[in-house]
Each structure stands twice: as C-alpha cells, then as structure tokens.
C-alpha cells in the first residue's frame, strides 16, 4: 500500500515532505521564510509574523496544506491541498 505522505505528485512536480520529519528549528525557519515572501499582503491586515506562522502551521497539521520539495530546482514550497 502506498503511503500518501511519501508519494510523488507529478502535478505539483515535487515530493511531499512529511511535517514530522522536519526538525522543529528548520520548520520554524521555513515557515518564517514562507510567510515573509508569500503573505506580505497580510502585513496590513493586522497579523504579526508569529500569527501568520501559526496559521500556516495549523494548515499543515490539519492537512489543508503540504510542503513540497522540487527535485529539479532544489527548492521547496507550501501548497494548499
């Protein structure tokens, strides 16, 4: 049986990285980088960076988003499910 956490999704052209396999300090840095580059429009909405990070983390934990690593470019992204 295929484990969905490790499947290769050709549509996203990346490999899903399971949340629990990421060191907490590295995850925090990834989330901080993500919200600073992708959620800049929320800076005027009254959300702090910590609140944005918590929102993304909750989406990852609930399965509403996932972390993908692109093997070709060596880059990563957080995408909605």
Automatic annotation (TrEMBL):
Pfam families: UPF0270. InterPro entries: UPF0270, YehU-like_sf. SUPFAM superfamilies: YehU-like (SSF118001). Signal peptide: none annotated. Gene3D superfamilies: YehU-like. Belongs to the UPF0270 family. This is YheU family protein. The lineage of its organism: Bacteria, Pseudomonadati, Thermodesulfobacteriota, Desulfuromonadia, Geobacterales.
């Amino acid at each position: 049986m295929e484990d969905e956490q490790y499947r290769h999704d050709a549509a996203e052209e990346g490999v899903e990285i399971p949340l629990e396999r990421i060191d907490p300090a590295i995850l925090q840095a990834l989330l901080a980088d993500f919200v600073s580059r992708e959620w800049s429009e929320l800076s005027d909405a009254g959300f702090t960076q910590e609140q944005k990070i918590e929102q993304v983390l909750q989406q990852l934990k609930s399965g509403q988003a996932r972390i993908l690593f692109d093997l070709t470019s060596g880059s990563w992204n957080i995408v909605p499910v």
